[in-house]
Amino acid sequence: MKSFRLSVLIAVAAIATVASGCHKKAVSAPPPAPQPAVARSAESTPAPAPRSTPAPQRAVASTPAPRYPTAKEQARIDELLARIEDAYFDYNKHTLRPDAVKALQADSTELRDIIVQYPDYKLTIEGHCDERGSEEYNRALGDARAQSAKEYLAGVGIPAAQLAVISYGKDKPVCDEHDETCWQKNRRIHIVAVAAK
Q1: Cα–Cα distances in Å, from 89 out to 3, 27, 64, 78, 97?
Q2: Residue 99 C-alpha from the chain's centroid
Q3: Tens digit of pLDDT for each residue in 128-159?
Q4: How many CB atoms lie within 10 A of CB 157?
Q5: pTM above the 0.90 mark?
Q6: What pLDDT was estimated at residue 168?
Q7: Domain of 129?
Q8: Is 122 domain-assigned?
Q9: Cα separation of 113 and 121, whole Å?
Q10: Strand partners, 169
């Protein structure tokens, strides 16, 4: 019987040894090794998330805007100035008559659209009078006529800084006869371009 017990004990011990060998403790997997910093292909690399702040802008060298019209634009301005008729005035008056407004109105909008792009480009409005009256009086009257035309042109949008006025009084007549028909032709304003410096 002793040998039977001994055999049972050995068998139990053997089973316990075998059972303990089969039942292993669960070991956690080691952490993955860090990846080397190598460029990955575009397919395996996920797209970066959009940034919430805009990227800084690179300074771009800008070409300064031209200060004077091109030759083509200058030719168009000259054509418009030639078409804008002189505005005429009544005797001893400097207010624009309806026909004077019509003369200024004809091409002043297109003229404005061109010259506002060129702040250094200037026009001069010349004021003229007929031969009657003193030199001093006619200079003042010619200036008042030129100012009236300047106010009108500024009202359609031509910058006042691009409009100069000058009075010639009775010094530059277009007609030399001594009658009302001729005098009417001399009571006028005339617009000219100022030469570029």
Answers
A1: 150, 110, 42, 24, 7
A2: 36
A3: 999 999 999 999 999 999 999 999 999 999 99
A4: 13
A5: no
A6: 97
A7: 71-175+184-193
A8: yes
A9: 13
A10: 128
